[in-house]
From TrEMBL:
Keywords: Membrane, Transmembrane, Transmembrane helix. InterPro entries: DUF7144 (IPR055568). It holds the Pfam family DUF7144. The chain crosses the membrane at residues 12-35, 55-78, 85-105, 111-130. Residues 19-132 form the DUF7144 domain. It comes from Streptomyces orinoci (Streptoverticillium orinoci). This is DUF7144 domain-containing protein. Signal peptide: none annotated.
Length: 143
């Protein structure tokens, strides 16, 4: 028979595990977007050209968007290892922005965009699935 403290510890471990999963996925997504941004800025010949796309930017413009979002994702991903509330909130915001940016750039590099959209969705899921009562208690402002 499982006692209440062991169950609470199990829930706290699950919450920490999901946050660590989201942190690792955020770092991966950040590095992939960083590389995508650099490649679009330096050598945009690897991307498709879509003449009649509604959300048309220059490829270098998309490169800068992905570069800055990638840097932000890496910084928040590192912050997620502390399991703090601010990092979880920023993680959802940055992952949402990355998801939107990758959706809008699907015509330029379809497969890469879809893979990154899936990774961003996993990050958002990992950060939002844990309820407050399932997280470690007695840690002040942390979850």
């Amino acid at each position: 028979m499982v006692s209440a403290p062991e169950t609470h510890t199990g829930k706290a471990q699950a919450a920490t595990g999901l946050t660590m999963f989201a942190a690792v996925m955020m770092l991966i997504t950040g590095f992939l977007n960083l590389l995508r941004g650099i490649s679009a800025i330096l050598r945009n010949a690897v991307y498709l050209k879509t003449p009649d796309y509604v959300f048309k930017f220059s490829l270098a413009g998309w490169g800068w968007v992905h570069l800055f979002l990638g840097i932000a994702a890496i910084m928040v991903g590192v912050g997620l290892f502390r399991v703090s509330l601010w990092a979880r909130i920023l993680g959802v915001v940055i992952a949402s922005l990355l998801l939107i940016a990758n959706f809008l750039s699907v015509p330029y590099f379809p497969l890469w965009s879809i893979v990154l959209m899936a990774l961003c969705s996993f990050v958002i899921w990992g950060l939002c699935v844990v309820r407050r009562e399932e997280t470690p208690s007695g840690q002040g402002g942390q979850w």
